């Protein structure tokens, strides 16, 4: 249960910081405190929640984070907006 509240805190802080595009991958990386280039470039390592001492108890980080994230959407605890993009074949 702690992990779900922690995940909600991450989503809330990312939303409060006006991060334009929040992906489940980015949420997972912050949840498990990954220090990869993409997270650094997006400035997510500067989030207060990223700097917290909380650690997950799960062994399979990304799979379970995505499952928890999807479950929160299905149960309407969070709302997901989808952006669709297309490219022209000869552009």
Segments where pLDDT lies below 50 for 5+ residues? none
Strand content: under 5%
Principal-axes geometry comes out as globular
Largest sheet: none
- How many structural domains? 1
Element-level helix/strand string: HHHH
What helical percentage do the residues reach? 40-55%
Structure summary, number of beta strands: 0
- First-to-last CA distance: 48 Å
Mean pLDDT: 82
> Taking Cα atoms only, what radius of gyration do you get, to the nearest Å?
14 Å
Overall description:
The protein has 91 residues and is mainly alpha-helical. It has one domain (2-74). Helix content is 46%, strand content 0%. Helix 2 (24-31) packs across helix 4 (61-74). The radius of gyration is 14 Å and the shape is globular.
Notable characteristics:
mainly alpha, 46% helix, single chain, 91 residues
Element layout with pairings:
Layout lengths: L1 H15 L7 H8 L5 H5 L19 H14 L17
